[in-house]
Each structure stands twice: as C-alpha cells, then as structure tokens.
Amino acid sequence: MPFGSWRGTAGLVRPTYRPGGMEELIKMLPDGVGIIPLFAEIERGTQDEFKVALERYGRKVAKLAEIGVDVINPSGAPPFMVLGYEGEATLIREWRKNYGKPVFTSGATHVDALRVLGAQRFVGFSYFPVRSTRFMGAISRTLVSMCWTWSDLMRRFRRFRIIRAASSTPGFVRK
Predict the structure, then answer these.
(1) 3-class DSSP assignment, residue 69
(2) In a 10 Å sphere around its CB, with 0-12 CB exposed, 13-18 middle and 19+ buried, how is residue 126 labelled?
(3) Would residue 157 count as lying in a domain?
(4) How far apart are CA 64 and CA 169, in angstroms?
C-alpha cells in the first residue's frame, strides 16, 4: 500500500450507509489509525438479504486485503448470524488464511469478551430474534434469555429496572 497511517490502517465493511456506528468507532481509536470503509449495501435487513450480502462482504474483504490494510473488520452481527456460530468462525478462518490478514467480526469480538470476562450467565438483546438466540446459545450454555425490545427486557428482568433507576441517580457507583 503506497499510503498508510503511522499506527496502521483498518479496513471496515459496514452493513449499511446508516451513519453513527463508524463515527463512534473512529472517536474511540487513537490518533494515527487510518480507516478505509466499504459498504455491503444492506437495505431491508431480512434473512434472505443477509445471505446474499455475505457474498458482497467476501468481495469487500478481498478488496481491503488487496489494498493492503493491516486489519479487516466486516461489521454488523445479523449477516453473520445467518451462518450460525460455527459457520461464522469457519468463514473468519477462511478469510484469514486466504488473505493473510487479521479479520474479526462483531460476533467474534462479543464471544472473546464473554470468555475473557469469564461470563457465566448473560442476557442478549437483539432485533434479530431466531438466529441470534441460536448463535448466542452456541457460545454459552448459560444464555439466560434473548430479548427483542426494551419492554421485553424490563418485563423479564425486573432487577434491571432497579439498576437502571439507581445508575441514573447522581453519585451512583456500581461496585
């Protein structure tokens, strides 16, 4: 790559043109990290569209590797959830092997975080019900529940109401 940033360059494949997520990521990165974004152009968010979008993700990952970025992040959880946990892990391994670059997805980073934290139980929250339950259940035998709306979460887990109310009180410190 005849250009680059002094701390490296990350290639992103964003699922949609929707603003917000990429800007938040850029704010968290240290100075000197460059970003090259490409887009999978997901519009409807249906399971059928996610399956087709995976081919686009593959082409975009290949393009980012060709450009010479240092790390590749195909982002957006639902497109990869249609593969299931093992399917996503296999695809990541293939991309890493084919392109010789570190590749990570949203799902992979969630799995890593849960393992590092030693999570024994967790509640998932997603707008994409069926596959996300199977996906998250595959990574942990202690999935407590998947919730699809905030009211669903509050109904099932009343304790969260107390924590939410307390945490919005000035001076609240969680131990």
Answers:
(1) coil
(2) middle
(3) yes
(4) 45
